[in-house]
Structure formats: C-alpha cells, structure tokens
Design a protein that fits this description.
Order of helices and strands: EEHEHEEEH
Strand order of the largest sheet: 1-3-2-4
Shape: globular
Largest sheet: 4 strands, mixed
Oligomer: single chain
Helix content: 25-40%
Strand content: 15-25%
Radius of gyration: 15 Å
Number of helices: 3
Distance between the termini: 32 Å
Length: about 140
C-alpha cells in the first residue's frame, strides 16, 4: 500500500491496515456522495482505515493518478478497484471506477464503504486470530 502525497483530504492513521484512495473531480455531484461517505468512514474508523481524497483537477491529484497508473475517476482500496460483494441480491462484482450511482455504473457509493469494511473485517480479524494463537 502506498499512501499518496498531496491529498485534498487525508483522514485516519498512517498505520491503518486499510488505505482508501479516491481520485475524482472533488465537488462534482456524482462523486460527492462517495466522498462524503468516505470522510465519515475515516472519522469513524480512523485507527483501522486511512482515507485519502485526491482532486484529479489539481496537479497533486494528477501526479498521484499517474503514479497509480489510472486515467479516470477511481477508488482504490489497498491498491485494488475490483471487489466481490455479498448482498440481498447475492454476490456481485463491482469495479470502483468511473461514475457511481447511475443506471449503467459499475458501482454505487455504498459499495465503496462495503468493500472498505470488508477489507477491515478481513485484515483485522486475521490479526485477532494471530493474537489468539500466540496467547497461552
């Protein structure tokens, strides 16, 4: 995981096991809900997740996008944008790229939070299991 430089918003601990990096034109309506939900997540789970929001219209955001080799609005969670989520309708694949929350979108804003929470559960439950094994 590589935290970026020049994030417009940077919340949570640098030691967190989950890093969420959002690249979007910040302030644009279609991405605002995702940004707001991520800010809330970073405030609520700051010890376990670090949230960085990059404005792709700013030089710092474009530099970080080049470093990550992405070209359009994207959310990366621990360097990944593709996730399988479980829900009421069963399993589905989401790709956290392009515009969310539209009929033809590959994801919605809540999917980003579900994917991040899934990563937190996976990584922090592994830690708890390891600690349990080492405790006499």
């Amino acid at each position: 995981m590589n935290a970026g430089d020049g994030a417009a918003v940077d919340l949570g601990s640098p030691e967190a096991k989950v890093l969420v990096k959002m690249f979007a034109p910040l302030g644009v309506a279609c991405h605002q809900k995702t940004a707001d939900l991520l800010k809330e997540l970073g405030g609520r789970e700051g010890e376990r997740v670090r949230v960085q929001l990059f404005d792709m219209r700013q030089p710092e955001g474009r530099r970080e996008m080049q470093r990550e080799r992405i070209r359009c609005a994207t959310v990366l969670i621990n360097n990944r944008m593709k996730f399988t989520l479980e829900g009421e309708e069963g399993r589905r694949e989401v790709v956290l790229s392009h515009r969310p929350n539209e009929a033809r979108s590959s994801y919605n804003s809540e999917d980003v939070i579900a994917a991040a929470e899934g990563e937190m559960a996976r990584l922090y439950s592994e830690e708890a299991a390891e600690e349990e094994k080492s405790t006499p």
